Structures are given as C-alpha cells and as structure tokens.
Amino acid sequence: MTRMTDQELIEQTLNALHGKEEEYRTTVFDRLFSTYPDVHRNFLGLEGSKVRMSNEVIELMRGLASDADWVEMQTIDVIDLHRSYGDFALDQFFHFADFAVDSICKVTGASAEQRAAWQRQADKLKPLIEQARPDWD
Ligand code: HEM
Predict the structure, then answer these.
(1) Residues 6 or more apart whose Cβ sits within 8 Å of residue 133
(2) Which residue has a Cα nearest atom 19 of ligand 1?
(3) Which atom of ligand 1 is nearest to the CA of 85?
(4) If 110 and its partner were Cys, which of 43, 52, 114, 135 is the partner (CB 3.0–4.6 Å)?
(5) Which CATH class is domain 6-132?
(6) What is the pLDDT of residues 80-107, one digit of tens each?
C-alpha cells in the first residue's frame, strides 16, 4: 500500500471530527485556560471567539498540509490582530497550536500516523507565527 500524504491523513481526521467540533473546542480552550488562567479575562465574547480561533488554527494547518500559498499572509494577519486583544507571549501561541493538535487527535481517536501529520503542520506554523510579530524577538 502506498503511504498516505499529510494532506490525506489530515482530511481523514477532519472527517472523524465531524459532529464532534464542540468537544474539540471545549478541550482546546480548557487546556488554554488551565495553562494560562489569566488570559480568560481577555475574551470578551468567548463563545464566538472559541469557534473562530478553533476553526482558524485548523484552517492554517490544513492549508500548510496542501502547501497553500495564502497561509503565510493569513497567519500574519490573524496573529497581528491579537495586538488589540491583549499582551500575549509567543509561547502561548505555540502552545495553542499544540493544544489544538492534541485536542483534535484525542477527540477523534487519531492514529500515531495521523497525529504525526498534524504535529508536522503545527511545527511549520510556529515560525510563521513568530515572523508575524517582530516585537517578540
Ligand atoms: C494559532 C493561534 C491562534 C489563532 C489562529 C487565533 C485566531 C483567532 C481568531 C480568528 C480570533 C477572532 C477574531 C475576530 O473575531 O475577528 C481570535 C480572537 C482572540 N484571540 Fe486568538 N488565536 C490564536 C491564539 C491565541 C492565543 C494564544 C491567545 C491568548 C493567549 C488568543 C487570544 C485571543 C483573544 C483574547 C481574542 C478576542 C476574544 C474576544 O474578544 O472574545 N488567541 N483569535
């Protein structure tokens, strides 16, 4: 059997996530708030932001898996936007990407191969996040 590409492994996991999106969102935000309780107060419209943040991080990683050329600019835009939401650290963004991978994989019961495919995208996303905020240097 031929090896599956990261894009295929990611699409498989997303199919398995169908109908479990709320569980994924709850898991990822529980991780964020238990690791960084102070940031809770920065979320003024938590329910909407939970959906947008959880979806956006998936879309960026999904875009990276297919080598989409819009990912770099979109990452810069979305990360830069956070300047108006609070004073956040680079590590918090790295962790959010890792929490998203972990939550997607837990909720879908992903295989080690699927998990590795997601983690590779999170690891590609991190330098793009870092590049979006030159003031983090
Ligand atoms: C890859 C990582 C992340 C992505 C892709 C992302 C994406 C987003 C998006 C799409 C929005 C909604 C913008 C809108 O409504 O127009 C948002 C809002 C927000 N994000 Fe993130 N985010 C990330 C990480 C983080 C982290 C690590 C924190 C804090 C530690 C954070 C704090 C916030 C806050 C406070 C808001 C506004 C919430 C509100 O007004 O209720 N984000 N984010």
Answers:
(1) 79, 80, 90
(2) 49
(3) 35
(4) 114
(5) mainly alpha
(6) 999 999 999 999 999 999 999 999 999 9
